[in-house]
Amino acid sequence: MATIKQVAKHANVSVATVSRVMNKSGYVSEEAKEAVEQAIAELNYAPNRVARSLYKKSSNLIGLIMPDITNPFFPQLARAIEDVANQHGYQVVLCNTDEQLEKEQTYLVALQTMHVDGLIITTNHSHNPNYETLDLPMVALDRIVKAGIDAVVSDGYEGGKLAADTLLKRGATRLAHIAGPDHLKTVKRRTEGFVEVAGDKLVGMTESTFTFKDALKASQQLFDHAWPFDGIFAANDVIAAAVLQEAVRRHIRVPEELQVIGYDGIELGEMTSPPLTTIVQPIYEMGRVATERLLDLIEKKDTRPKEMLLPVTLLERQTTKREER
Amino acid sequence: MATIKQVAKHANVSVATVSRVMNKSGYVSEEAKEAVEQAIAELNYAPNRVARSLYKKSSNLIGLIMPDITNPFFPQLARAIEDVANQHGYQVVLCNTDEQLEKEQTYLVALQTMHVDGLIITTNHSHNPNYETLDLPMVALDRIVKAGIDAVVSDGYEGGKLAADTLLKRGATRLAHIAGPDHLKTVKRRTEGFVEVAGDKLVGMTESTFTFKDALKASQQLFDHAWPFDGIFAANDVIAAAVLQEAVRRHIRVPEELQVIGYDGIELGEMTSPPLTTIVQPIYEMGRVATERLLDLIEKKDTRPKEMLLPVTLLERQTTKREER
DNA sequence: TCTTGATATGTAACCGGTTACACATTAAGA
DNA sequence: TCTTAATGTGTAACCGGTTACATATCAAGA
Fold first, then answer.
1. Alpha carbon separation from B22 to A41, A106, A115, B37, B45 (Å, rounded)
2. Which secondary-structure segment (H or E) carries B94?
3. How confident is the model over B99-124, as pLDDT tens digits?
4. Which of A13, A102, A216, B301 could lock onto B296 through a cystine, CB 3.0 to 4.6 A?
């Protein structure tokens, strides 16, 4: 790789002039500019970002901290973040923390010492001391870390209500629910919204993590103890897929005997049999908004922290009945 | 963040001494060592990786180039890579190229100018001129870029044979197949293996991309034109899920009337109804091996290029019949 | 003609590490 | 006692950019 010195020599100017034409800063004569541009082209020169970072104290890198990219909700988020970052000349560093504070801490110092310009956090520890001392632009995604940190979340409460409402409208009279992990505020809201609208129609409820195995166990337990119910809302699509599988195993017909609604809108819902009706979070959009916000923060366009609440929608596939009109 | 100078002053030594104790290089007295260590602790010092990179021309960063993290095969790979990299003090930069040469090229210069130490490539252009001129350690994963570049792949040929063999053993007599995209060599091998063993039992075959929508179309077409068949092998699990969904829609009983085998062993296969029998690639293992190999390359432990072929296994779930004994 | 501000360009300091080199000091061996 | 090698430490150059500052030229306005 050529250096700026070589370019300068090649174009018969000083390094300062080369730097000026690259950054379009200061005064440069047309003549010099052309010479430099030609030299750059001829030497196939691209400036060393490490050197630039050192002086500028900015790396055009953003850190993406998530529990586990393997969880099917996150890839879309990561994709959106990467897309937007890339469009603005940033790269993203991927960090899987498994929600372990220690891993998180390790990543945080690594990220800091490499001078990332900002952080997107998809993690849960609202009390996490790691972030408090951190003087870095950051935005929380799908999680609420603490007041004072920007957050982008979708409207889980409305989503929960929408799920209950839909089930009721489609003629369900005995509702069940599988909630997500208790420590996730954004997930809890779904349950709250659902319970609120379900009222005394709610006949069974349990809780599960977001792994399929756990979800399957929870489903079995629910079917064993709370059956019969004719409408069920799962806190996410993975859990809904487990419910579906368990229903098939028990020869319960979906949606005739049991209507099922999931939450998230991940691709998985399209692939189940029958395809899953679900409350769609605008996942890609959330990633996009969060990244754009972070970029604004980095460029100091706006520093008042705020929470962005994105709307959810119902996607009717085939685990709910057609609405009668 | 403290700098090495501050640490040096605090410990009453020179920066060289501080550097020496941090890197355990050269001679340092016990006394000086303790003073420095205490200063580091008190100032909460961590060396600036950017500065270190500039001098060392090595960033402890590795670039991960993949088509689309949203494709359910890749997150596990990414996870493995990230895990191993992290264990060795490296971070990974995520790049989604959508298989577009232009994006790839952009990433490549970005990655080079930030002095990544190596590349893991999960992409397809065997003729890709971008990589030829690149003087960087790299390993191709699940893809064969060209001779001379290390590659880690699973044994698709054996996998295809295993699928046909299994179907035949379980009593299928009329076989069908949906192949993957033609330009993926590693995927083509699955088809070759399958066709070889299926022989004249093969009654229908078509091709599909790895998106669910396309797979659904391909399935429908196959059912329309080649039915009846009683065993089908799909080039990956997403396609198999589509076949399954279409079979359910047509009230074809699986596995009684039709046995289905997928390929990959992604989590999705666990979530379909019924759960999918599939040929499992050791995905995480592949990511691990590739990354360890890359790290060896970076540290110049071994430079002879080689291709690593990992074995696949059959995972029997419920879309195939139990073997009669 | 003289002053002044806009234009143009180069030199060198700086960012925060690493390390070559010079220079002590000390201990072991002759 | 004199060499010599091992040990210990500091100074400064270096990595490849950016930019403050000094300097020079030139045209416009007084």
1. 41, 18, 20, 9, 11
2. strand B91-96
3. 888 899 999 999 999 999 999 999 77
4. B301
Q: Which residues of B, range 205-264, sit inside 8 Å of A by Cβ?
A: 212, 238, 241-242, 244-245, 248-249
CA distance B246 to chain A (A): 9
Q: How far is B66 from chain A (nearest CA, A)?
A: 11
Domain A57-154+284-309: CATH superfamily is Response regulator (3.40.50.2300)
Report CA(A17)–C1'(D27) in Å, whole number.
23
What pLDDT digit, counting tens, does each position of A156-202 carry? 999 999 999 999 999 999 999 999 998 888 999 999 999 999 899 99
Beta carbons within 8 Å of B189's beta carbon, 6+ residues apart: B156, B157, B159, B160
Give A15 CA → C1 C1' in Å: 38
| Chain C nucleotides covered by protein, CB below 7 Å | 7-12, 14-20
**Protein B23 CA to nucleic acid C28 C1', in Å?**
29
Residue B210 has pLDDT above 90, yes or no: yes
Q: B residues 70-89 near A, CB within 8 Å?
A: 70, 72, 74-76, 78-79, 82-83, 86
Q: How many residues does chain A have?
A: 325
CA-CA-CA-CA torsion sign (B236, B239, B244, B247): negative
Cβ–Cβ below 8 Å for B212 and A64: no
Are B184 and B124 a contacting pair, CB within 8 Å?
Answer: yes
Q: Is residue A81 predicted with pLDDT exceeding 80?
A: yes
- The reply to whether residue A50 touches residue B48, judged by beta carbons under 8 angstroms, is no
A272 inside 8 A of chain B by CB: yes
Q: Which of B47, B69, B272 sits opposite A113 (nearest CB)?
A: B47
For A11-61, the pLDDT digits (tens) are: 999 999 999 999 998 899 999 999 999 999 999 999 999 999 999 999 999
Q: Tell me, what's the pLDDT at A323? A: 65
- Spell out a b/e string for A5-30, using b for 16 or more CB atoms within 10 Å of the CB, else e: eebbebbebeeebbbbbbeeeeebee
Q: What is the CATH number of domain B4-47?
A: 1.10.260.40
* CATH fold of B156-281: Rossmann fold (3.40.50)
Q: Give residue limits of the domains in chain A.
A: 4-47, 57-154+284-309, 156-281
Q: Token pair for residue B131?
A: 């990589």
Q: Do domains B56-154+284-310 and B156-281 have the same CATH topology?
A: yes
Residue range B56-154+284-310 in CATH 3.40.50.2300: yes
